[in-house]
Amino acid sequence: xxxxxxxxxxxxxxxxxxxxxxxxxxxxxxxxxxxxxxxxxxxxxxxxxxxxxxxxxxxxxxxxxxxxxxxxxxxxxxxxxxxxxxxxxxxxxxxxxxxxxxxxxxxxxxxxxxxxxxxxxxxxxxxxxxxxxxxxxxxxxxxxxxxxxxxxxxxxxxxxxxxxxxxxxxxxxxxxxxxxxxxxxxxxxxxxxxxxxxxxxxxxxxxxxxxxxxxxxxxxxxxxxxxxxxxxxxxxxxxxxxxxxxxxxxxxxxxxxxxxxxxxxxxxxxxxxxxxxxxxxxxxxxxxxxxxxxxxxxxxxxxxxxxxxxxxxxxxxxxxxxxxxxxxxxxxxxxxxxxxxxxxxxxxxxxxxxxxxxxxxxxxxxxxxxxxxxxxxxxxxxxxxxxxxxxxxxxxxxxxxxxxxxxxxxxxxxxxxxxxxxxxxxxxxxxxxxxxxxxxxxxxxxx
Length: 447
Fold this sequence. Notes:
alpha+beta; PmbA/TldD fold; 2 domains; 5-stranded mixed beta barrel; 9 helices; 23% helix
């Protein structure tokens, strides 16, 4: 059966669930069906560790009785009538929520762009094993690599079908393919590990398995025999793109409307104000073709294209669902995601790049710390306090010199965002596309 026919069948199921909910006494309802399909293989030292294949269709029915709301979930084959009756019964005994609602009718999407999100390629288990073996072999061939932690390859599908009682129905599917490998370099107590991976919407866009393996091996070898450095303040820390994506992720979390409404964001009072350097412009774009975070409409049936969340350092938008927007006195901007409930979320986050190459940025630092890995969860989203374990390389005379580990870097995100310098190495294949970022004035705790 074609993917289109399957989506049509799931959409009919969603619409039927809504009809049953209305018959059971719901004033309004929406129904979501999420299809997940995956196949993966993992190897270690040339031997297959496991192969897995799974497929599921999960149903979520949300019902409104006045200002009372409840949601129930079930898997394929559940009794639809019983599911609807249970949801309505739960809603009737729930406390009233003054902000609970479906999306405003005039905000519902009537059309949306073709984002080219589905690749019908279905790699066999054998081809996934071959890719994992090739990646691991390339990593182990790098001089200095001692052993493998493991390698893997996978393929999957995410499909979303949404219908509402006030006129929306839509479906989309997004494929995904990945390869990864992790290895150890060095000997005895001086061993270091690192990894590399790639993940794409289209199979043909994946990096070669051998390229991923070589990169993982070279990264691990470069970390062997790390040193500690002396504790100091006013240190310039350069975050490589992997680490920089996490740094921008903290900003994304801080401008989530749900956190603002709960008053758990350090930026809760900063709308329209300067929160970062002039050069920081952050765009959230769900319409990136073949984007890993792309979607034609959100979890409420609203379709809003690119939004400038931060412009030249000034906060312009929160991430909003309809109910969160109402709580804040605003309107949804089409950033609802669905899980057990409805919550705001980002799509493809793109930071405007700087004018320097990473090498030029490091040279301009002169002396500092280049971070390749962060450890721990030491970020307080309420206050902005930031403290993370880190490893990477020491910068001396504008060059990366020796590897560094077992240090801690600390500052406050409110200050960090105002002391950033960006390189030009944006890679838009990630849901958060951030370049190499230098942050001045951080504290480094070492020896």
